[in-house]
Amino acid sequence: MKEVYITRISKFLPNKPVDNDQMEEKLGKIGGKTSKARRIVLRNNKIKTRYYAIDENGQVTHNNAQLTKEAVENLCDSNFTTKDIQLLSCGTSSPDQILPSHTSMVHGFLKNGNMEINSPSGACCSGMNALKFGFLSIKTGQVENAVCAGSERTSSWMRADVFEDEVEQLSALEDSPILAFNKDFLRWMLSDGAGAVLLESEPKGSTPLKVEWMEGYSYAHEIEACMYAGADKLEDGNLKPWSEFPAKEWGKISLFAMKQDTRLLGENILVKGVDSLKLAFEKNNIGPEDVDYYLPHISSYYFKENLYDELKLQGVEIPWDKWFLNLESVGNVGAASIYVMLEELVASGKLKKGDRILLHVPESARFSYTYAYLTVC
């Protein structure tokens, strides 16, 4: 088996940062009314700025595949061009279409020649699953290099016009229609952007990071879906997919909007997250003392203190001085968040040879968790 190193890392965050007062102007007011949930959600998540692929005139500037293409090109220079990529592996929760696959579309924009591609589906863990496919492909000698990426373009799923048909239906039934909290909640949580890494079998570059191991865990056998799109949740907890609804119903219930069951989120996301972290620690014979930088992807600062408390409760407390977060300034970029976080840590100049970095990525879709353990070379 070969060793695997992250030798380059990049990000692409579109346009100018959007502050809290600009959000509703960018995304639009549903039914012409200001959201009642917005201030509550923003107060809890403590995100101050985020990025949208929407310009000053409200026009879309990039689709998801274009965001990813920009991040991939930001990895490259005259010494390593897009034509040198042997494997492209890209994860996202918000693909531009059902088919072709997300990575196929990214490859189409790159126009860089024939190569292998991989498109893992899912939510936040899809970016890490993209990384793991590249990691294993190099480790087994299938390829000599791999570009892996995570990206989101969720602003297009959150714009007011997505919910217009549903609000019209509600207006016919009641005087003051209010969009359900499980849909409105996510409008104030998510951000657009992309991140990418180059994996190689040699420790090249100014700050190469050796990928020691990656682990993944799913609790779908225990817990029903929490975050979903393209489906409606039934009373028994099962999802009814879009393909089983008449087309005329899709808009009436905002079927393709992202939705989240916040009750399930609060009950499970941290408990299972720490449980799976313990499994990863035990399998690889390490503990909190073997971590110098802890990068947990959290969707909201609401979870920060509670995550620390859960780590402590389950006996794997990680001191605050080891934590590295950038949620406040870049927002929750889903599958791209861990790439953007790692890029900022590397660019900070804080890392020194021998430092050990733990990446911890949850996804609430049906409670999956993915980990990577890196060493600075």
Automatic annotation (TrEMBL):
Keywords of this entry: Acyltransferase, Transferase
Family annotation (InterPro entries): ACP_syn_III_C (IPR013747), Ketoacyl_synth_N (IPR014030), Thiolase-like (IPR016039)
Domain Beta-ketoacyl synthase-like N-terminal positions: 120-202
Pfam families reported in the protein's UniProt record: ACP_syn_III_C, ketoacyl-synt
Single GO MF annotation: acyltransferase activity
UniProt-recorded name of the protein: 3-oxoacyl-[acyl-carrier-protein] synthase-3
GO BP terms: secondary metabolite biosynthetic process
Taxonomy of the source species: Bacteria, Pseudomonadati, Bacteroidota, Flavobacteriia, Flavobacteriales
Organism (species): Maribacter vaceletii
Beta-ketoacyl-[acyl-carrier-protein] synthase III C-terminal domain: residues covered: 282-359
Signal peptide: none
CDD domains per UniProt: init_cond_enzymes
